[in-house]
Amino acid sequence: MTLSLMPYPRIRFFTANGTAPLVGGKIYTYQPGSTTPKTTYQDFLSVTPNAWPVVLDGNGEAIIYLDGLYDVQIFDMNGVQQTGGGTNIAGAGSTFSQTASSEWVSPGDVPTYISPTSFSVPGDKIGTYTVGTKIKSTCTSGTVYSTIASCVYSSVSTITVVNQVGVLDAGLDAANKLFIALQKAESPSDPIPPVVIKTGDYTITKGDVNTILVANKASSIIFILPSATVFPSGSWIEIKNIGAGNLTITGTIDGAANPVLTQYSGKVLWTDGTNYYMSGGYGSVNADNLLGDGAYREAKTENVADSIVRRDASGNFAAGTITANLTGNADTATNATNATNSTNATNATNASGTGTALYATETGLTTIRGAVASNGTITYGSGFTVNKGAAGLYTLVWTSNFSAPPSTIPTAKGSGSVNYVANVYSDATSSSIINIVNLTGTYIDVAFSFISIGPK
Q: Which long-range contacts (CB under 8 A, 24 or more apart) does 410-417 make?
């Protein structure tokens, strides 16, 4: 018999609000259309059967190989049925030929190289190359690791990827050059990375790449960073703190030593292989951490060092003292460069002396802006295309790559009293991935606009 790994949808392994693993949860599997239990396995050769039901571990996880089709029901440790499950469920990659125990299998396709982030294969393979699935390919430059962002069929199947290690090249054009991951392959309906909760001090390793690490401790807790050279360029880890104790990340990030995350805050940590950087995380939205206007509770209306500033009810905020050194002789200048003694200078670059600099600009930046309909159609804007993935997932692909990852700010379009939150899943030189959720954390297709700024 041919076995395959069960999909890894978040709803099946997380609590109802999606913020914590379904620790001790139970997976009941049946013959389709019946209440007759059907066995799953711990390995694809069906040597070791799972217990029935399958009991999830301390991370809300289990390795489950399927033999054909199943009906699946999900319960928590107290026997309360959860949303999710379904009928006639087949394993991820169930049509693959598996000849050896491996976390990678070949789908048997001969790929054709298109670009550093795309390739095609013959036939309609949308069911094989699902969004969020990891792939490994052999190219002229070496082994490349990527994540599938979209698969579109029109005479051939065109697959677009986000590269984690290396980029695709023409060396991909041959048989036996393409492999798909079995272990923890994300469901096309929910490409969320694995969540791992830590209740004590922890040293981050290469195995944590592309995961969400969550600190949950009532007192202070420490995550220890190894040297950035340990990780391949482009690697990322999202770090969140849901515990009452402060989380200290030991290491130098964005030039600052040992940053601290307070309760309900989170950041995405990424590296270029030499240094660490941080940006706002996309993560699962915790409704308890949102104010009525959608602002995060960690933002402050008062002027507090190293914190986000939030406007008060009148639209004002305290910014403290802004100091600028001005040169030049512009009194009321717009786009002033090297202005001395400038008062009310707008967009002043390299300004010194006394006065009020309204903006200080970085030179050589390119701005791309636009709007996207809920189905992924471009409403307006240029310089980009859109790949529509699973619910709430949109990949903005830049027509011309940035020379460094840009800063992308998406804004979801609400409807009346219904609000949504648009988050940046990842920024890369070739694309930015946007996720949109409602205030309960459910991913949903919603129109949005964005602006992306970065160097070309």
A: 410/434, 410/436, 410/448, 410/449, 410/450, 411/448, 411/449, 411/450, 412/436, 412/446, 412/447, 412/448, 413/446, 413/447, 413/448, 413/449
